[in-house]
Amino acid sequence: MRVRARPLDRYVFGEFWKIFVTTALGFPLLLxxxxxxxxxxxxxxxxxxxxxxxxxxxxxxxxxxxxxLPAAVLFATVFSIGGLTRHxxxxxxxxxxxxxxxxxxPIFAGAILATFAGLTLGELAPFANRKRQxxxxxxxxxxxxxxxxxxxxxxxxxxxxxxxxxxxxxTVHGIDIxxxxxxxxYPSYILSATSGMYDPxxxxxxxxxxxxxxxxxxxxxxxxxxxxxARHFDQRPIELTASPKAPEEMRFMELGRFIxxxxxxxxxxxxxxxxxxxxxxxxxxxxxxLLFGAPLATSTQRGGAAYGIGISLATTMIFLVLIQLTKxxxxxxxxxxxxxxxxPSILFGVVGTYLFLRVRT
Length: 361
Fold this sequence. Notes:
Elements: H1 2-45, H2 50-86, H3 89-95, H4 100-103, H5 105-136, E1 146-153, E2 158-166, E3 171-179, E4 188-199, E5 203-214, E6 221-229, H6 237-240, H7 252-264, H8 270-297, H9 304-331, H10 337-340, H11 343-357
Antiparallel strand pairs: 1-2, 2-3, 3-4, 4-5, 5-6
Helix pairs in contact: 1-2, 1-5, 2-5, 2-8, 2-9, 5-8, 7-8, 8-9, 8-11
């Protein structure tokens, strides 16, 4: 029995994978067309080259594919199982002693692969999004001469919180620099200074400040200074006027450090917490949504392809609406942000499990 099932596994997985890849790449291509249509005047005004514009859309793919993966799994599940049902292949498998659950086991494997792909894309997308913004020169057209009360996330876990920045004067006022460490050999520290001035040749000179070095939870070594050079604080004033990183421009751990720094400054981080947890919840939904789509797919023979498309599109729209509701509920503190991010997965999981257990095997 196990030998006879192997060709069937390859066949079912192949049908699922073809539809999955087509959907995962097809939807982002539609988004690219819509974005180009809406923003072509903006891109022309920025005098972007064709190469930069094309590369910007290539760098956009990881983020757009990441969001569409659960829908791609749903489409692939509905159409692959629906095709097997319409052509009586599932009936034939059952007659041979192979249960419905065993027939769709390769689709479960495909959904697990999609989940790992989503987790990987979630870590690649921030880098790609930053490259896209550079190619589109978004920061260049959004900068001003002054900026107040903002946080700037830099490399190596450093976060700058600045009260006031004046580009023309090359000064900052009320600056905190925080770095998350990893023990005594690479300690955490918090540096606070009343003001700072930028010299193009020598960098930033911070004045009238205090530095807390925290090797572990039991020590806090304090240094006071009249002036100090911040060697790693090498951003020019104009660079600090760039918009703060959005959640989609930070990886999971990087976003966690940024949230911690913002919490210490007293900012509301509920929405950021939801965005952070969605980086895990969205890929995992690829498995959960399979439980929802597989039972519905067995009835697609009643309406053919149109019925399958209708089910998939309607479910996708519900999922996207739930994601937006999740952000709203979590950001307002109605539910704990980390829990709110899992609401779509929980709802689809409960309904999907009920439907899945009722399928005739």
